[in-house]
Amino acid sequence: MYTNEVALRYAMALASFAAQNEMLDIFEKELEEIEEYLDKNEELETYLSFPKVRPEEKQEVILKLFAHFSPEMLNFLCLLIEKKRWQELKEIRHVYNREANLYRGRVAVHVETAYPLEEDLEKELKVRLEKVTNRPIDLSTQTTPELIGGMKVRIGHQVIDGSIANQLRSLKRDLLEQKGRSRGDSQ
After folding, report:
1. Stretch 39-59: mean pLDDT, rounded?
2. I need a labelling partner for 182 at 20 to 30 A (CA). Which of 35, 83, 124, 162 fits?
3. Ordered domains of the chain (ranges, CATH)
């Protein structure tokens, strides 16, 4: 998954602040809550993203709706509105969770397979990945039929693509390169 630079900077700063102030879990829960709330209230999401609404009005809405949040998170949300970065919130949350796990000494690993993993295979995969990373992992899985077979593993920023779809793409690229070279040789 591509992470944009703006979301990365905001999320890393937020995670760093949270770690220094022992608020990793608090911020994680608050970010999850606001994302769930916005998913259920599309009108609010539209309102907060609408450029013609003054930032002060948007901030007032946030402060009222999420008054139970920590003051630090409310300041962060208001900053996003002030800097016109509200649309980055979901990506910031995603990156924040990954960074928070790193501060906790855990690694987020995402595995995509063409078919759902059986429970025993998922457990075995988790054990092996913990040995590879030498850290406890938070494993998430996703079924992506387009992979055809095999799996794609994302550990932090690193992606290991062992899917059949990727192997077919590589084979096609190799064949096209070979074809291009053979045309050049015959001229």
Report:
1. 95
2. 162
3. 5-101 (1.10.520.20), 105-182 (3.40.30)
Q: What is the DSSP string of the chain?
A: ----HHHHHHHHHHHHHHHHTT-HHHHHHHHHHHHHHHHH-HHHHHHHH-TTS-HHHHHHHHHHHTTTS-HHHHHHHHHHHHTT-GGGHHHHHHHHHHHHHHHTT-EEEEEEESSPPPHHHHHHHHHHHHHHHTS-EEEEEEE-GGG-SSEEEEETTEEEE--HHHHHHHHHHHHHHHHHHHHHHH-
Q: How many Cα atoms sit within 13 Å of 36 on the Cβ side? A: 7
pLDDT, residue 185, reads 64
Query: Whose structure tokens read 């000494």?
Result: 105
Structure tokens, 111: 């595995």
Q: Give CA–CA dist 106/35, Å, rounded.
A: 23
Cα four-point dihedral sign 127, 131, 132, 136: positive
Under the banding of pLDDT at 50, 70 and 90, the label for residue 184 is low
